[in-house]
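Before our next group meeting I need something from you. Please put the record directly below this note.
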Amino acid sequence: MVLGLRLFTDRVGDGAGQPLLDADNGEELMHVQPGVSIVLGNRSPESSGTLYISTKQVVWLSDGDRAKGYAVDFLSVSLHAVSTDPEAYPSPCLYTQIETEAEDDDEESEGSDSECNGTLDLSKITEMRLVPSDPSQLDTLFEIFCKCAELNPEPIEEEEEEHNWIFSADQMEFEASDPEESEWHLSPNPTSAIGYSNGDHDLSQTVLQLQINDHRFEDAEEMGGESSHGRQ
């Protein structure tokens, strides 16, 4: 799968047309919202177009230019939220963050680097705003984004599938009694934001890790207590 925003020109029908969907692989149209402007990164808003939300992707098509359109898969949308703060953006909008293949390069940024010789480089766009002409539609768009994001969970890495996350009580005691040899580490909590983050965080795994480390702390307290008694 190609991460990030991409050009989309596959239209069917007369006039402005509609996006050509991958019906053979089960892609279905979920919502159509006319009168939506799109803002890519720090650029000015594009002319008004129509937003198409399918079970796989978000597609924006210009109403006036049949050759202009953008699309992003839900798997590349890492966060979306309703933005109504005029200090963040003058118009109420649906704010989205987009994962790109260029994110690992610290020198890449979506500001001045997103354009080269006047040509927009979509591979460096990490933020997208969808600005409907009717702000009352924002809640509806947000709910549909949430539903479609749930239909596209992050794929499980092969390395994670190879691990056996089921432990017996004896195994848990062994892990707790020998912290130096244990490979368990608490994962840092992801930064939360108002909106929806597309991801599949395993709550049971986190609870198990906390239980194991709780045993470690109890052992540390007991050892500390015995040591202090020995000095008296």
Remarks:
- The chain has four helices and 13 strands.
- The first strand starts at residue 6 and ends at 7.
